[in-house]
Cytochrome P450 (Monoraphidium neglectum), 610 residues
Amino acid sequence: MTPEERERVVVFGVLAAFGALAHVLHGVPVIKCVLLCVLALLVVLFTNPYARWRYRHIPGPAYRPLVGNLPDIIAEGSHALFERCRAQYGPVFKVWFGARPWVVVADADMGRRANYRLLNRPFGFTNPLARGEVLRSVMEGLFLSRDGMWSMLRKVWQPTFHSESLHGYAPVMASETRRLVARLRGLAAAQEGDAAGSGAPAINIWREVGRMTMSVVGSTAYGVDFDLLAQEEGQGGSVGQEAAQPGQGDGAPARMRSRSGGAALVQAAADMFECSEIGNATRYLVAAHLMPVLVPVLQLLVAVFPDARYKRLVHARKTLKSTSLSLISDTRAHQARQQQQQQQQHAAQSGAASPVVPSSPQAGPSASAAHRPVGVSPGSFLGLLLAARDQEGHALSDRQMAAQANVFTLAGYETTANTLSYAIYCLAAHPEAQARVLAELDALGGPAGREVTVDDLDHLPYTAAVVDEALRLYPPGASTMREARGAIELGGYAIPDGATVVVATYSIQRDPAYWPKADAFLPERWIKGHEDLAATNPNAYLPFGSGARMCIGYRFALQEARLTLAQLYRNFTFELAPGQVPLRVRTGITMSPAEGVFVRVVPRSAAPSA
Ligand code: HEM
């Protein structure tokens, strides 16, 4: 039973006992008992006495009846609220996310302890309105899975991010970046045209790189060519599910071409993000956070009287799931046909049938062409999941596979897009750093238009440092969350069992106690010879979290961010549109630019030769 469920049972139990006692002992009429119970329930909802009593020893801003600190979280963003609270209450404090207390840790060493010691994410992290099949699917994805299920899934995911697999994803990243460059060239030309006339509209680079990162994770996760940028240019794939051949076209690994499927998936992923953020969510979700005791009632109400936002969320969920499931079933059917053909061939050659060896769990486009299915490319994540087996040799269920593909897309899309946008913002605001990036890229040499490759990354330490520093100042995962289990003490405070422990990454990464010139953008601090600017505590840098639940895709993300940034600056520089400094950010599921990052794209004449 989760802490929320326990609390619910206690509250309803007390109310029922209260009503029954009143009736039996004093002969109070039933109607009065009901009214008394409703009154008692309202008092509980407004004052949240049980939780406030359990967390009374931990300092923090005052609890406001019914809403806790939710209005501040929505208005300021949790990252800014945590900064304010750390200054006022010290490194450990509590804030009220509606009726739920969060114990926030804004200290590098204590944050490490929490992340290493606690394994599960809190139940409160899930959408409280989810139940039944939806809840089961969510809890079977790597991000929210718990205990034994999590450790099985983490092992299944691991090969996806081995070095060979990472190299295998480079062509997808390169082809999507190529499309982005082509699109930005077009937009830059339009900007030039407009500049001569009525004034150039700025380009929201956050949106542009978001399309690209969605294409990269979508293509990698589902084996579907999202083909987004080409769609806008009126080129690209067909609605039919025609398999591209390896080595054909743009050099990307074989991917199913599905234009409408790709667009629907992208829309679905974007809707999932938007509708899951508390500021944009269905009113029922807000009510569920404010009154967890009433969650069962709200679950019923939202099912019977859904509002538009909830309908959008449900539709998005269905799209993600049905796309995965249909890809999986197409692939299974194809594999079965293939196995049959192989058996028939073998029988014809040797005169006897022999068992077929299943394809090995290998990621990257190098997987055997003989085992290549039509729907899902072997270089895709779904291809890997189809071949994976748990310790007992069981395959994942279709629902489990679909859940992993969803997590891959959702975890890898906005985080990487935000990182790239922040890096571009920082470089545009610091011309001297931009000049160093350009010099480093020009030193790569090669003919004009030569693309940056994964092997070049070793020769681009400053570009890597720009990404690291952008992730320090603007961590897309601005905090990590864990559920306390058993007795744990942080900063001298006993943390109640089941508490939500939040490690305040943003605050730690900007704390002057650990970082010289903490608020300054200084990529040099990541380069040898500048130890005076480096962190005084290694635990003060955790953009990908830490401990066993640390981001499993961090190498994928860094490779993608560095490659894309390098390729963009081989071709362009970016100038900030007026009014962009300081950048406004908002924290929802990720910390992202509030409206975007608006720039003018300036094409570089030609990449110089060495
Ligand atoms: C710059 C981009 C990214 C950032 C900043 C980022 C950040 C994070 C953070 C902070 C966490 C929570 C870690 C913790 O609780 O200690 C996380 C978890 C996770 N990330 Fe990422 N991430 C990024 C890209 C990606 C990509 C590209 C993928 C997949 C391809 C991915 C997949 C995941 C998964 C599956 C988890 C959950 C791991 C688990 O619970 O075992 N992330 N990420």
Observations:
- The radius of gyration is 26 Å.
- The chain has a mean pLDDT of 83.
- The CA atoms of residues 32 and 606 lie 83 Å apart.
- The chain has 21 helices and 14 strands.
